[in-house]
Write a structure and sequence with these properties.
Protein name (chains A, B): DNA-binding GntR family transcriptional regulator
Mean pLDDT of chain A: 91
Oligomer: homodimer
Largest interface: A-B, 48 and 47 residues
CATH architecture of the largest domain in chain A: 3-Layer(aba) Sandwich
InterPro entries (chains A, B): Bact_HTH_transcr_reg, Chorismate_lyase_/UTRA_dom_sf, Tscrpt_reg_HTH_GntR, UTRA, WH-like_DNA-bd_sf, WH_DNA-bd_sf
GO molecular function (chains A, B): DNA binding; DNA-binding transcription factor activity
Structural class of chain A: alpha+beta
Keywords (chains A, B): DNA-binding, Transcription, Transcription regulation
Number of helices of chain A: 7
Order of helices and strands of chain A: HHHEEEHEHEEHEHEEE
CATH topology of the largest domain in chain A: Chorismate lyase
Distance between the termini of chain A: 43 Å
Radius of gyration of chain A: 21 Å
Number of strands of chain A: 10
Strand order of the largest sheet of chain A: 4-5-6-9-8-7
Low-confidence stretches of chain A: none
GO biological process, one term (chains A, B): negative regulation of DNA-templated transcription
DNA sequence: CTTCATTTTTGGTATAGACCAGAAGGGCGG
DNA sequence: CCGCCCTTCTGGTCTATACCAAAAATGAAG
C-alpha cells in the first residue's frame, strides 16, 4: 500500500489543512464552498470532496448539512475515571456546556434492560433523552434509564443539569462504581438527526453503568458522541 | 437532516449488512467484488462504494487494498486501567496475538521527548517500532521510547513479547502509574502503510506514559489502532 | 423593523465512463 | 517441485454531468 504522494486529492487536502494550520481559517469559520474550491483548476468536485472527507476523518473540519464545511474547535478532554459530570468538566476547560432535555418518559422495563437492572420485565423505569452541546455545537446525545422504584417522581426534578447530583441530593443515592464501555461506531438515523449530522458518520458510543455501594444499578446511560468532539484521557495508579 | 429512507446506497448497505448478520457471510470472508455487487441492476459502482464505506465506518467490513472487502472479526476489548499487556489480554479473549519488531534503534532525545522524560535534549534513548496483530490481522503499530540510562542494553533483549515484563525482570523497573490518552484520528502515511490500510482511514491514537514509583517516566508509547479493532472498557470504583 | 415567500447557493446523491497500480491466479520453464 | 512471467481481476482515483432538497440569502410586503 505504498502511496505515490502525487494523488490529486491529497494535494487538495494538504492545501486546505495548511490554510487552517496557518491561521487563515479559524475554528468555527466556514470554508469556501466545494465549487469555489475547484477554482477552475481542472479538478472535479468529487476530488475536492474526497479531500474534505479525509480532513473530516482527522477531525480538522466538520460539516453542517447543505450549509457548508467548518473548521473544528478543539476537542473536549474526558476522563472516564473521574466522574464530575459533563457540565463541570466542560466548564473546567473554559468551554460553555449546555444541555437540552429532548424527552422524559416513564417506560416499562424491557427484556434488554431487565438483566442490567436486575428487575423484572415491565417494572417501571424512567427514560430521559438529552442533547449536550459545547459552545453551541451539539456533541452528544444520550439516553439515560433509571429505576423508578429507586427515584420516585424523578422526572419532576430539573434534568438539564447533573443527574448524578439530583440523585444524591433528592434521593440520597451515591454512585460507588462506574463501568464505562466505549466503541467507535457509525451514527445511525436517530442519533445523527439529533446531532444534526449526516447518518453514517463516525461516532463514539459510550455506555456507562453506575452502581451504588450495594451494587444496585443506579443509572444506565448510552451516549453517542461526535467522533471529533472528544479526547479520552485516563490516569491510573497501578495497584 | 431528515432522511427519506429511500436513498439508494442505504438500501445497498442494508442488503449487505443483512447478508452478514444472517450468517451468509462470516468474519474473515471476502465479499463479492464491487462490480459483481452491481449485478446489472442499474446501480453505479460509486453507489455501491458509498454503501461499503458506511459499513466500513460501522466496523462491519474492512478492505485489503486492491484485494477486496472482508467481513470484520469482533473487536478486542481493552481496559486501559488494567495493565497486563497486549499479549495476555488478547489471549484471554481466545484470540491469537502476534508481535513483530519493525525497528529498534538508539536515538538522541528530541525536543519533544525531553520534557516528557525530564532529560536533556540529546540524551540517549531507545526507540522501538512494533506491529501487533490479532488472528493474523494487523491491528496496531506502536512506537515506544525508553530512557537508555534506565535500561542499558535494552535492545539486546527479546522485544516481541511484553516490554513491561522485560523492564521488570531485567532491570527491576516496575510501573506504578499509567497515563493513557486516546483520540480518534486519521491514519497517515507511515501508520497506514504498516497496517496495510489506505492512508486517511479512521484510527484511534493511544498515547501511554508509564511512570515508576519515583515518578520517573519509564516508557512512552504511541499506538495507532485500526478503528474497528478495539473496544474500550473501563471499570472504576468511585473514591 | 419583522414576516413571509422566492431565488440562489450549497452540499448530497447518482450515473457513466475511463485509466491505473497492485493483488491474485494460471501457466510455463526450469 | 519451485520460481518467474503474464494475464486477469480488483479496488483506487478522477472526470464530467445531472438533479434534488435543504439552507441561506434576498426582496417584497406588512
Amino acid at each position: 500500500m505504498t502511496q505515490p504522494d502525487s494523488l490529486h486529492y491529497l494535494g487538495v487536502r494538504d492545501a486546505i489543512a495548511a490554510r487552517i494550520a496557518g491561521g487563515e481559517l479559524k475554528p468555527g469559520e466556514r470554508l469556501p464552498s466545494e465549487r469555489q474550491l475547484q477554482v477552475g483548476g481542472g479538478v472535479a468536485r468529487g476530488t475536492i470532496r474526497e479531500a474534505l472527507f479525509q480532513l473530516e476523518a482527522e477531525g480538522v473540519i466538520y460539516r453542517k448539512d447543505r450549509s457548508g464545511w467548518y473548521v473544528s474547535p478543539p476537542p473536549v478532554v474526558y476522563d472516564p475515571t473521574r466522574w464530575e459530570g459533563f457540565m463541570s468538566y466542560v466548564e473546567a476547560q473554559g468551554r460553555r456546556p449546555t444541555t437540552e432535555t429532548l424527552s422524559k418518559t416513564e417506560i416499562a422495563c424491557t427484556p434488554v434492560l431487565a438483566p442490567i437492572f436486575g428487575r423484572p420485565v415491565g417494572a417501571p423505569m424512567y427514560r430521559i433523552r438529552r442533547r449536550r452541546s459545547v459552545d453551541g455545537r451539539a456533541v452528544l446525545v444520550e439516553t439515560i434509564v433509571v429505576d423508578a422504584a429507586m427515584a420516585p417522581d424523578l422526572l419532576s426534578h430539573p434534568l438539564d443539569g447533573s443527574l448524578t447530583s439530583v440523585l444524591k441530593s433528592a434521593y440520597n443515592i451515591a454512585v460507588a462504581r462506574n463501568r464505562v464501555d466505549m466503541q467507535p461506531c457509525a451514527l445511525t438515523r436517530g442519533e445523527a438527526e439529533a446531532l444534526q449530522v449526516k447518518s453514517g458518520l463516525p461516532g463514539l458510543n459510550v455506555v456507562r453503568t453506575s452502581y451504588d455501594a450495594q451494587g444496585r444499578v443506579v443509572e444506565f446511560d448510552r451516549e453517542y458522541w461526535r467522533h471529533d468532539a472528544l479526547k479520552i484521557s485516563v490516569d491510573i495508579r497501578v495497584r
